[in-house]
C-alpha cells in the first residue's frame, strides 16, 4: 500500500509536526506500507495553469505524480483566515477532476482555535468529494494548545491519529478488495 502524507502549507510548524506523527504511526501500524511525506514548504510548486498533471516537471511534477500514484492520501492542513491555504488549493487545481477516484483520503487539521473546526467539513470535504475521494469520515483536529515548542503534547490527539491511520488502512484495503471483486466479475 502506498500512502502520501501531505503537509499542505508553506509556512508554520504545527502541520508538519502533526504530519511527522502521522508518518511515525503509519510506519508503526504497518511496516510494509510505503509512506511518502510531502511537505509543500520543501518544494517549489508552480501555480496551476491548466496543463495535465503529467506535463509538469520539477517539484510540481514530482508532487502531482506522487499523489496520483498513491492508494491513499492523508492531508494535513492548517486553517488560515477561516480557510485552507492557497498552496493546498493549488495542489488540487494541478490534478484532474477525478484525481482521487479509487483513493482513500483522510484529513488532519491544525488551527489556532476550536472555532475553525468546520472549515474542513465545509470547504475541504466538498472539494475532495468532487474529486471522487473515498473519505475517512472522522478527522483529526488539533489546536494551538496541543503543541508546545514545536512538539505535539496532547496524548488524545496522538490516540486519534492512531485511529485515523488504522481507519485509513482498513478502508483502503476494503476498497481495493471491492474493486478487485468488481473487476473479476467481468471475466476478461
From TrEMBL:
<keyword id="KW-0560">Oxidoreductase</keyword>
<dbReference type="InterPro" id="IPR005025">
    <property type="entry name" value="FMN_Rdtase-like_dom"/>
</dbReference>
<dbReference type="InterPro" id="IPR029039">
    <property type="entry name" value="Flavoprotein-like_sf"/>
</dbReference>
<keyword id="KW-0285">Flavoprotein</keyword>
<dbReference type="Pfam" id="PF03358">
    <property type="entry name" value="FMN_red"/>
</dbReference>
<protein>
    <submittedName>
        <fullName>FMN reductase</fullName>
    </submittedName>
</protein>
<feature type="domain" description="NADPH-dependent FMN reductase-like">
    <location>
        <begin position="1"/>
        <end position="145"/>
    </location>
</feature>
<keyword id="KW-0288">FMN</keyword>
<dbReference type="GO" id="GO:0016491">
    <property type="term" value="F:oxidoreductase activity"/>
</dbReference>
<dbReference type="InterPro" id="IPR051814">
    <property type="entry name" value="NAD(P)H-dep_FMN_reductase"/>
</dbReference>
Amino acid at each position: 500500500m502506498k500512502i502520501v502524507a501531505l503537509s499542505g502549507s508553506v509556512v508554520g510548524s504545527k502541520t508538519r509536526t502533526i504530519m511527522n506523527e502521522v508518518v511515525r504511526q503509519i510506519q508503526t501500524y504497518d511496516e510494509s506500507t510505503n509512506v511518502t511525506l510531502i511537505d509543500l514548504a520543501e518544494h517549489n510548486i508552480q501555480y496551476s495553469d491548466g496543463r495535465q498533471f503529467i506535463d509538469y516537471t520539477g517539484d510540481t511534477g514530482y508532487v502531482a505524480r506522487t499523489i496520483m500514484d498513491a492508494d491513499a492520501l492523508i492531508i494535513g492542513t492548517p486553517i488560515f483566515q477561516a480557510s485552507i491555504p492557497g498552496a493546498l488549493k493549488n495542489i488540487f487545481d494541478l490534478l484532474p477532476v477525478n484525481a482521487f477516484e479509487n483513493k482513500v483520503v483522510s484529513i488532519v487539521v491544525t488551527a489556532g482555535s476550536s472555532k475553525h473546526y468546520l472549515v474542513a467539513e465545509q470547504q475541504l470535504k466538498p472539494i475532495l468529494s468532487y474529486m471522487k475521494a473515498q473519505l475517512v469520515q472522522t478527522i483529526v483536529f488539533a489546536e494551538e494548545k496541543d503543541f508546545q515548542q514545536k512538539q505535539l503534547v496532547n496524548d488524545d490527539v496522538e490516540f486519534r491519529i492512531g485511529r485515523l491511520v488504522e481507519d485509513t488502512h482498513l478502508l483502503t484495503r476494503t476498497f481495493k478488495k471491492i474493486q478487485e471483486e468488481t473487476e473479476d466479475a467481468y471475466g476478461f
